[in-house]
Amino acid sequence: MKSVLVLGANGGIGSALTARLAQDGHAVTGADLPGLDLARHGVAAHIERLWAENGGFDALVHAAGIFPAAPVAESDEEFFDRVMAVNTRSALSAGAQFVRSCRAEKRSGAMVFVSSGAARRARPGTAVYAASKAALDALVRGFALEHGRDGIRCCAVAPGFVDVASEINPVPQSYIDALTRASVRGRVGRPADIAAVIAWLLGEDASWVNGRTIPVDGGDGIGSADAPTWLS
């Protein structure tokens, strides 16, 4: 049994993950709004406090994020800073504190961040979001490279679109329908699809996987089923 801290535990992927980990027999501590606002400074102190209250953690999952859409030419500094704070800066702060706590107690650990296929695939209106996830992937490699010999692994999952019915990040049904038509599998992702891969990455079967961002998109990253074709 592992003790796992999940940030963004009330979100679509976060709640599916906490349920999956509990089902697998792990002890799960969830953190989310209103107790933890990842847009604000102080994330590391919050992780340090949760560590002390729970006797430490074997794993950290950063499953929080915001997905606002805005044309790149209309994106200002305030918009950029907010997206980067939640999606990237908070992951750095949480991960760095997790590493410090593990090293202080000479214990191994695993981290998984939720990235996105958007980090590599452009879509109109997602440039700032994509930048935050590309930066997150770089952090994954940095943590893995610098702390692999401390017994600490860091990986990420890169979902395609996942329908989480979020009130914070509402998405028009027309957009979901268009993605469904284009999907290789004929549907968009579900939170449980992503939770299953995160659970695997935290387990011993994935102990030789480190510093990698794993696509979990049903194959949509390879192309679109409704792309133009000359076939009759």
Radius of gyration: 18 Å
Task: Name the structural class.
Answer: alpha/beta
Low confidence ranges: none
Tell me the series of helices and strands, N- to C-terminal. Answer: EHEHEHEHEHHE
Strand content: 5-15%
CATH topology: Rossmann fold
Could you name the CATH class? Alpha Beta
Total strand segments = 6
What is the domain tally?
Answer: 1
The CATH superfamily label reads NAD(P)-binding Rossmann-like Domain
How would you sum up the major sheet?
Answer: 6 strands, parallel
The appropriate CATH architecture is 3-Layer(aba) Sandwich
Structural features, described:
Pfam families: adh_short_C2. GO terms for molecular function: oxidoreductase activity. The chain is α/β, with parallel strands linked by helices and 232 residues long. It has one domain (3-216): 3-Layer(aba) Sandwich (Rossmann fold), CATH 3.40.50. It contains 6 helices and 6 strands, in the order E-H-E-H-E-H-E-H-E-H-H-E. It has helices at residues 12-23, 43-54, 77-104, 127-147, 173-182, 191-202, and strands at 3-7, 27-31, 59-62, 109-114, 152-159, 213-216. A 6-stranded parallel sheet has the order 2-1-3-4-5-6, with helices on both faces. Helix 1 (12-23) crosses helix 6 (191-202), helix 2 packs parallel to helix 3 (77-104) and helix 3 packs parallel to helix 4. The longest helix has 28 residues, at 77-104. The chain starts with a strand and ends in a 16-residue tail after the last strand. The model has no long low-confidence stretch (mean pLDDT 95).
